[in-house]
UniProtKB/TrEMBL annotation:
Domain spans labelled Fibronectin type-III: 418-522
Biased composition regions of type Low complexity, renumbered to the chain: 543-567
Organism superkingdom: Bacteria
Record flagged with keyword Cell division: no
Annotated InterPro entries: Divisome_Glycosyl_Hydrolase, FN3_dom, FN3_sf, GH, GHL10, Ig-like_fold
UniProt-recorded name of the protein: Family 10 glycosylhydrolase
Annotated source species: Hymenobacter tibetensis
Keyword flag Signal: yes
Keyword terms of this UniProt record: Signal
Segments of this protein annotated with the region Disordered: 534-576
The organism's taxonomic lineage, starting at the top: Bacteria, Pseudomonadati, Bacteroidota, Cytophagia, Cytophagales
């Protein structure tokens, strides 16, 4: 063992200890849960891992199973789903390019019967539960085996066999061919244009994981498409880089609100092979899969990076705290979500025994939160594993860590302008419930409208603040054919409350609030109005290579409120008040009326 390797192991040990001590040294962080945190789950369709559970389900059975799964994940606090819509050059949606997936209908190329397009349904059901929908594509995997006679007549292999490689019993697209990159871009952009997705997602499968005795036969492409005369490893990395760069550019020029992110293997490079690497001694995504994830974040070619950190805090080869700290330093201003290995709690590994206990997964989520400026959330693999509640992991989320709702973090490099506040907020107080109704505002200067609304409730003795999600009463997404209304049946008769309503756009920018206050009288109607001036811009974000320049927004103006209090039939008292913003108050105090 080299001195460098020994030093790296020693550093890993100390970073691990420091990370665990940080969790116990900051108990206050657990007192107020984060208001902004992505809480996602992967839904794998390949081999029917998560959904649908069988290839023989009818469309109605598929829909019922998906709804039930989302309901369970909603109870677990999940606010984003990453659904595999193209597992192996096949489709879980109506495609004119690729065949229906055999994991959907049992036979590749066979349409659902009765016929329907699952993807609009999958998206709508996620949105109805306040969840982002990220469409998960496997760019290079063409088939789970190399028996081409089983491929559907419209499989791309039938038209372009020269695009493909055979490796370890699988059929793969050749990343070195420009036509392949263009085709993959076209496939994904077809979905971006036609469906209301929130994100495009890749996992860790680029060039194949190495297997003994197997060779990637891309010699012809290397000879023909290598104008820079790169070495084979650098040429392969460049091929993947070009796909990532060009796809991100295509997405942003088509729908600026659609995010693009990748979930790479958890180790970029080991420090013994590169001084910029992590203090680990594991397989490397950079050299093993030709996936230079650090370069993608450095160049701003992804909006988020989601490394798969499926090891425990005590696993010396790749300790979780060591890798968490490394990725937090190498996100280059892009969002960092952590891939959490919920499935590991179902294993009986003798190499990584920390998963045999009940504390490892909750400990990792708490450790993530000790990096509040750098780690924006977690995504769990996979849905089935989390639902099975291994070692009470889901209970820890539902009852503790994810007990209160969280909004998805904003991405200022994509959009930093909030929508306009809701209009005509009216509260009708009655002995059994308080009913709030409102109307949407006109579009903001950037063309955005509210995608959903957040309603906060405070006791009359509390100072309203936007930072504590425990005051979020509901997150409401408008549905076609329904009005904007919320009935608060938990309000106690005789008590006064302050309700604050904000509008939130597709990229989760939050407007200034509109607010109403009750007095606790048995019957009263309160009408609130707010200025349509947008909220101030958030603080500037660190510069990234491709980040656009944001525009300044005018400061908010005075808010007027009209209150009508009804104490008896025919007796109405109208009170008009003009609330002036106090001087020398902070931004959130100013917009939320803090004292």
């Amino acid at each position: 063992m080299s001195h460098l390797f020994a030093a790296g192991r020693l550093l890993a040990f100390f970073v691990s200890i420091v990370g665990l001590l940080a969790v116990s040294a900051r108990p206050a962080l657990a007192d107020v849960p984060p208001k902004r945190e992505l809480r996602g789950v992967w839904i794998a369709t390949v081999e029917n891992i998560d959904w649908p559970s069988s290839r023989n389900l009818t469309p109605e059975q598929q829909r019922r199973e998906y709804r039930r799964m989302l309901d369970q994940q909603q109870r677990n606090g999940i606010n984003a789903v990453f659904v595999q819509v193209r597992p192996a050059s096949d489709a879980f949606y109506q495609s004119s390019y690729e065949p229906w997936s055999r994991w959907l209908t049992g036979t590749q190329g066979k349409a659902p019967s009765p016929n329907y397009d699952p993807l609009p349904f999958l998206i709508e059901e996620a949105h109805n539960r306040g969840m982002e929908f990220h469409a998960w594509f496997n760019p290079y995997r063409a088939s789970m085996d190399s028996v081409t006679r089983r491929l559907a007549p419209n499989h791309p292999f039938r038209q372009h066999p020269e695009w493909f490689l055979r490796y370890a019993g699988k059929l793969l697209y050749n990343p070195g061919l420009p036509e392949v990159r263009q085709y993959i871009n076209r496939i994904i952009m077809d979905v971006v244009r036609r469906y209301d997705i929130d994100g495009v997602h890749f996992d860790d499968y680029f060039y194949p994981y190495p297997e003994a005795g197997q060779v990637i036969h891309d010699e012809m492409a290397y000879a023909q498409f290598n104008p820079d005369n790169l070495s084979v490893p650098n040429w392969r990395r460049q091929n993947v880089n070009v796909l990532i760069r060009d796809l991100h550019d295509s997405i942003q020029h088509t729908k600026r609100w659609v995010k693009f992110g990748v979930s790479p293997f958890g180790v970029w490079m080991n420090q013994r092979n590169d001084p910029e690497g992590s203090a680990t001694s594991a397989f490397e995504g950079y050299s093993g899969l030709y996936a230079d994830a650090r370069e993608w974040t450095r160049q701003g070619w992804v909006d988020y990076i989601l490394p798969q950190l499926y090891w425990s805090s005590s696993f010396k080869v790749a300790a979780y705290p060591v890798l968490l700290e490394w990725w937090s330093r190498n996100r280059f201003g892009r969002h960092l979500y952590i891939g959490q290995g919920a499935y590991r709690m179902l294993e009986t590994s003798r190499r990584d025994t920390a998963w045999l206990g009940t504390r490892e997964l909750p400990r990792q989520v708490r450790l993530n939160r000790t990096f509040p400026a750098d780690v924006q959330g977690s995504v769990f693999f996979s849905s089935k594993s989390l639902i099975s509640n291994p070692r009470h992991a889901a209970d820890s989320l539902r009852l503790n860590l994810f007990r209160y709702p969280a909004l998805v973090p904003t991405m200022p490099w994509l959009d930093a302008m909030p929508p306009l506040p809701a209009q005509n907020l009216v509260l009708t107080a009655a002995p059994k419930a308080n009913t709030l109704t409102w109307q949407p505002a006109p579009v903001a200067p950037d063309g955005d409208q509210a995608a959903y609304y957040v309603l906060y409730r405070f006791a009359s003795t509390e100072a309203p603040s936007p930072d504590d999600p425990r005051h979020i009463l509901t997150v409401l997404r408008p549905r076609p054919g329904t009005g904007l209304v919320y009935v608060d049946t938990t309000a106690r008769p005789g008590l006064g409350y302050a309700y604050y309503l904000t509008a939130v756009d597709r990229l989760h920018n939050e407007s200034r609030p509109v607010n109403v206050r009750t007095t606790g009288r048995p019957v009263e109607i309160i009408v609130a109005q707010a200025s349509t001036t947008p909220a101030p811009m958030p603080p500037a974000v660190p510069p990234v290579a491709t980040a656009p320049v944001t525009r300044p927004v005018p400061r908010p103006t005075t808010t007027r409120a009209t209150t009508r209090t009804t104490t008896s039939p025919g007796s109405v008292t109208k009170i008009k008040t003009k609330v002036k913003p106090r001087k020398k108050r902070g931004f959130f105090q100013r917009i939320f009326g803090g004292r």
